[in-house]
Amino acid sequence: MTKTARLIVVLCGVMLSCFLAQTQAQYTSQPLTLNETVELALQNSGDVALARARYAVSQDKLSAGHAVFQPNLYVGSNAAYTMGFPFISNQTPSVFNAQYVQTLFNLPLRGQDKAAKERAEEARIELQKVRSDVTVRTAALYLELADVQESLQLAQSEESDAKDILSVVRERSGAGYELPIEVTRARLTLARIEERLTKLRDRDDILRAQLRILIGYASDKELKVHSEELRMFGKPQSIYPLDAALNSNPVIEEAEHERDARAFIAQGEKGGYWPTVDAIGKYDVLSEAINNWKEFIAKPQSFRTNNVTVGISSRIPIFNPATSAKVALAKSLVQEAELSLANQRQNLAVEAKQRFQRLRELRAAWDVSELELKIADDLLSASRAREEQGRGIAGDVARARLEDNEKQEAELDATFEMAREELMLLEMIGRLSDVFPSLTARGPEDR
Predict the structure, then answer these.
(1) Within 10 Å of residue 302's Cβ, how many Cβ atoms?
(2) How far apart are CA 146 and CA 152, in angstroms?
(3) Percentage of the chain surpassing pLDDT 70?
(4) How is residue 90 annotated by DSSP?
(5) Most exposed residue of 239, 269, 301, 407, measured as fewest CB within 10 angstroms of its CB?
(6) Longest Cα–Cα distance in the chain
(7) Co-location of 138 and 234 in the same domain
(8) Could you tell me the pLDDT band of residue 6, with boundaries at 50, 70 and 90?
(9) Are 267 and 190 in contact, with CB atoms under 8 Å apart?
(10) Residues 188-212: pLDDT tens digits?
(11) 158 and 300 assigned to the same domain
């Protein structure tokens, strides 16, 4: 083999090694933090994308409605041959014309424009609400997966201890120191642990599949979470004031904006009894050759090819039954929105009170589980000390360790329940951004 051939083989080997290393890095992912997982979910959520599109539609509607109050300029031509008086389609025939129109005073349209602003704000709040909902779902899945992940490790340790206990009980039963029922009881304990392990493994698979879908991971991509996130998030926080739920709840804010939008429309429809005023201007280039203008003008010498008209166009309603019907409908819609808002406030006050009470109960349960775990830790330490001193009974340490693991699982479950309840409470009072900075990131809705 020549030197050139050997060099080529070496280069190919290096390139292959780099490719394999890169592939390995892609499939050996690092554990995701809770905030990283939430950010991925917000980036890949179809619900967030749809809400963002609806917000963009509301902004476009607002711009379209406001355009009527801005200057509008049109150019065109009404060129036509006439044998009689030059007049077509309510306009004079012209070779070229330019027309300017701008609405100056139109209360119904002004009311609709103000309502569009309120509904654009509704769409922005709806987008934030969808982002919060995705955040809560993602965080709840992440924290439950962390709970299940750590519970699996504890249950596997419990399984090992239960097997040791069963072995010791069988030996003591064979020697006549234990009744046969104790063997059955030890087997039952092991069977219950194995049952719990099966359920935990199945739940782990389901949670990972659901979380992969939310964050946009492929089904074969490894997903790791930090178990410590559960304990960090689940630490008891301060109780939030009940008024916070009513002051910053997004559902209430949406209902308030909808009520205000309907009120602006009602106010505008009442203005339908008033005149409308438009600024107008028109420039026409007339043709004497094809329209014979001089035949119909008292002073033919005053005819001008170029004509300019500038003024104000006003329409005063004298009799218009449609206005009364629109006003009545708008008032009914406002009344409906006010009643709906009042009902939502009452329901939210009850729900918020229930959630606060539930959170207090879960915190009390967490305190109990923490104390029970401390007692189990102390009993395990005492069993180990007796074993080291030669005063222990066979299987005592395994039993104490089994009890300690069970208390750790109970404490983990209590921590998760408390964390999930606090997530829903934070969503209710609009305070999720205190925990998840990604919710405060600037997006199209913030501009």
Answers:
(1) 8
(2) 10
(3) 83
(4) T
(5) 301
(6) 137
(7) yes
(8) low
(9) no
(10) 989 999 999 999 999 999 999 999 9
(11) no
290 contacts 158 by C-beta, under 8 angstroms: no
CB 41 within 8 A of CB 134: yes
- Stated pTM of the model: 0.77
| Contact present, 193 and 164 (Cβ < 8 Å) | no
Cα separations in angstroms, 443 against 41, 50, 115, 393, 434:
15, 14, 23, 65, 18
- CA end-to-end span of the chain: 66
**CA-based radius of gyration for the chain:** 38
**pLDDT interval class at 23 (50, 70, 90):** very low
- Using alpha carbons, list the distances in angstroms from residue 398 to 167, 337, 377, 392, 424: 11, 65, 13, 11, 39
Q: Are residues 128 and 161 in the same domain?
A: yes
| 34 and 127 within one domain | yes
Give the CA distances from residue 420 to residues 127, 201, 247, 350, 400, in Å, rounded to whole numbers and listed in that order. 22, 21, 22, 19, 30
| Token pair in block for residue 298 | 């008292």
How much is the average pLDDT of 381-398?
78
* 100: containing domain: 73-105+276-316
Q: Are 314 and 280 in contact (CB under 8 A)?
A: no
Is 1 a domain residue? no
CB-CB contact of 263 with 256 (8 Å): no
Rounded CA-CA distance 132/250 in Å is 10
Indicate the pairing of strand 276-285 with strand 306-315.
antiparallel
- CB atoms inside a 10 Å sphere around CB 211: 22
Chain centroid to Cα 295, Å, comes to 72
- What stretches of 238-348 adopt beta strand conformation (E)? 276-285, 306-315
Average pLDDT over residues 217-240: 75
